[in-house]
Amino acid sequence: MNAMVKYSKITIALLLSCLVWVGCSPDFPVDEDGLLVTNRAECYVSNFELLGSDFQTVRTKNAVIDTVAQTIDVEVFYGTDLRNLYPQFTLVTDAKLDPKITGKVDFSDLVTPKVYTVVSGNRKVRKPYTLNITVQKR
Amino acid sequence: MQRNFLKYTSLLLSLVLLMTACEEEKSIIPPARTELQNDVIKRTLGPNIVGLNLEFAYAMALAPERGKLVSAQVEASIPGAGGTYMENKTYYTNGSGQDVGTEVGTALPTEGKITKVNFTKDTSASTLRYYYVIPEAARGQEVTFNFSATSSTGETVTYKMGPYKIAKMDMKLDMAVTDAAASYISIADMAVYTAEEAATKADKIDLVYLYRSIPGIMFNHALVSPGANPEYMPDLTLPAGVNRSTKIKKEWNLRDQHLARLQFGVFIDDLDFEKINLTDMPNYALNMRAESGAWVETADGRYRAYVYINSVNNNGKSARISIKRYAL
Lengths: 138, 328
Known about the structure:
Helix content of chain A is 17%, strand content 30%.
């Protein structure tokens, strides 16, 4: 009888401690956008596309992405309307872009190229990429 | 053990019997109606544009032993334009899939709002097509149709269709534009002019069609507004006074069925012209391809249009364009 009481006490204590442990373990961490924060530290742009107002590409050739110098060089067709372009970044897994792209972007100021920052999956590495656009010459 | 088995088997069997014993109710076939009846379907799709047809198929029938059809008529709330008529033939589809017509009556000329067919054949069931050519008077308004049929028994049936909203926009198909010849496009006139003609209508020229084959860049077929940067009009001297700056937005994959007459069930309606925002758009569009198009807003803000490129010809330095235009 004594032994049974003892066992049940131990079992209850164990269960309780389990509950406390589960109750206190943190939820999966999310960032301010509600995106999952993972433990990936990779931080780079893997592909870049630029679309015109008709959603067709305006690139004359593939964009050159330099992940060391953190630059993207893209040449667009002669006569491209730089005020109404839709950039598309492809990033490494779990990374995100800052500022976010929400619609068409005005790239007509070629002198001061736009800078987009890639944020790694663990949200600890931030790498600014400079987007250099050149227009094809006649 | 065996007793148990027997018990369950008999129980199961009796359940099955019980289920099959529950006879379904007999379905009731309703008795065929013998009085005069009618029905209408609208066969045309998309926005209703002035000058185009609204096509209906009007079906009417009564039991043969009861009587025969005497007449069918349609009354439109707004008289149709010239060419509005009702078929005096009823059609069936033959083995090759072709519609074969059989004359069943005499078509009377459309008088005002009323189009009528008097049956001459002894027929108790028929489907007649009705073609309503949308008149200018109906632009921006609603049209309703009253279909009615009478039979030899003196019965009359009616069927109301509509109201159908008639679009405010205009349409012009298949205009040929040629570089250095008929290349000045006027949205206001929905016409193409030569340089000499353009000089006399300078305030109406909204676009210039150009074809340039320049090595290293994609210029090709272009729609450029006269007010654009002259670098987009190489080797072109505009007629005096032609200087309007039109907003142009290139579009791809928008093959309006009225303009393109292709298999795509896409239509541009009045609402699209009202909603589109062309504020920040440029005043030129280079490298236009066949089956592409461009939204256009004239400099005076009076018209918005969609210019569709039906085909291009590099050797002939020409293109065929179709336009839908909406007056703001």
